[in-house]
Specification:
The protein has 14 helices and 2 strands. By secondary structure, the chain is an all-alpha fold. It has helices at residues 2-23, 67-78, 90-93, 141-144, 146-150, 159-167, 172-180, 190-201, 211-215, 226-236, 280-284, 316-325, 344-355, 360-363; strands spanning 261-262, 293-294. The longest helix is centred in the N-terminal third of the chain and has 22 residues, at 2-23. It folds into 2 domains: 67-205, Orthogonal Bundle (Cytochrome Bc1 Complex, Chain D, domain 2); 211-362, Cytochrome Bc1 Complex, Chain D, domain 2 (Orthogonal Bundle). Helix content is 33%, strand content 1%. The relative contact order is 0.14.
């Protein structure tokens, strides 16, 4: 009788266990020790794009570009899995048709929350070597990637949750194995996200096919129109026949940024060099840096409305008019920000030149497109 009771009890326990397996209540989400070594790890290294005249892109020794790493980064860049509720992806604020920005005055994140600043373009971001974001708070791309993931106004996720989601994903453990050679699922870390997305962003590079680039290509016979040439001369102060528009000092070729920070007179000093957004000063702690923002690249600028860190200028006409007026005075306003005295015709010519920086080929590059579409 005792053996029958023991058998019955064991059978009941087995039945309950089998039932729990069927409904998943006792099944772990994933086996963190799952072996991945049956998947081939043979990295194929890739050189970064380098258009004619561009400087050499500096690639970190611990994060070389590989085909598998770039492809993993492309998927993660467009995948909302990195956000708390899977509604926001990196590409939500940086999509190709907007020059890898988003055409919003201010960036919009999770739950419709609004950031105090606009989304910067990622075009040519791999060449930006003096801090990232408007205030330069991240030194490099690998350091920059987690910032919007945890930012409450952007993706508002927790890094351990992101890692857990990737571990439980059908494809990402295999892709991370191919990209970084991990041997088990439990090796997945946020470092793989940072490195792979950084690799992909380093591929977001100008094509070298804008009209500006074609005009200066070796052996080219393409010419600027008279209006574009006048704008070019004013932009770089190359002719006595037109005034200096003071543009090239902060937006020099070929990147059309000097990677520096300036107070461009956009914000009004509220007293003692205090501004609505102190920008670089919040990072350095130096009063003289208050109100300074990173000079963005002007490549594809005509496709990236509205303008400035706060999205306060709606058109290139408004941007040119701001600089023509000299902006708001401040102790640390850049000395080259001054009333320019440009005529309406000269302002129009300057805008005509800015349109020569439009590079649709970079925006339509299939290697930079959404892999889920």
């Amino acid at each position: 009788m005792r053996s029958i009771c023991l058998f019955t009890g064991f059978a009941l326990i087995l039945l309950l266990f089998m039932q729990s397996c069927r409904d998943g209540s006792m099944m772990p989400d994933t086996d963190d020790s799952e072996d991945l070594t049956d998947i081939s790890y043979e990295p194929i290294f890739v050189d970064p794009p380098r258009p004619q005249g561009f400087p050499e892109m500096v690639i970190p020794e611990n994060n070389p570009l590989t085909e598998a790493g770039i492809e993993l980064g492309r998927h993660l860049f467009y995948d909302p899995i990195l956000s708390r509720d899977s509604t926001i992806a990196c590409a939500s604020c940086h999509f190709p048709s907007a020059g890898f920005s988003d055409n919003n005055a201010l960036a919009i994140g999770i739950d419709g929350q609004v950031s105090p600043r606009s989304s910067m373009s990622l075009l040519d971001v791999g060449f930006f070597n003096n801090g990232l974001f408007w205030d330069g708070r991240s030194d490099n791309l690998e350091e920059q990637v987690p910032d919007p993931i945890v930012n409450p106004l952007e993706m508002h996720s927790m890094l351990p949750d992101v890692v857990n989601d990737l571990k439980n994903h059908e494809n990402y453990p295999k892709m991370i194995r191919k990209a970084f050679g991990i041997k088990q699922v439990d090796e997945i870390s946020i470092d793989h996200v940072s490195k792979s997305v950084s690799q992909f962003m380093r591929m977001i590079v100008s094509s070298g096919e804008s009209k500006y680039d074609r005009v200066f290509a070796p052996g080219s016979f393409e010419l600027f129109t008279d209006e574009e040439l006048n704008g070019y001369d004013m932009f770089f102060d190359l002719s006595f026949d037109v005034p200096d528009a003071e543009c090239g000092h902060c937006h020099n070729a070929p990147l059309f940024t000097t990677n520096q920070y300036f107070n461009n007179g956009l914000q009004e000093d509220q007293g003692n060099l205090s501004f609505p957004d102190n920008g670089r000063g919040n990072i350095t702690g130096r009063r003289i840096d208050n109100g300074k923002m990173r000079a963005p690249s002007l490549r594809n600028i005509a496709m990236r409305t509205p303008y400035m860190h706060d999205g306060s200028l709606n058109s290139l006409e408004e941007v040119v008019e701001h600089y023509n007026s000299g902006g708001h005075p401040a102790e640390n306003r850049d000395p080259l920000i001054r009333p320019l005295g440009l005529t309406e015709s000269q302002k129009s010519d300057l805008i005509a030149f800015l349109h020569t920086l439009t590079d649709t080929a970079a925006l339509n590059n299939p290697q930079l497109s959404n892999p889920f579409e």
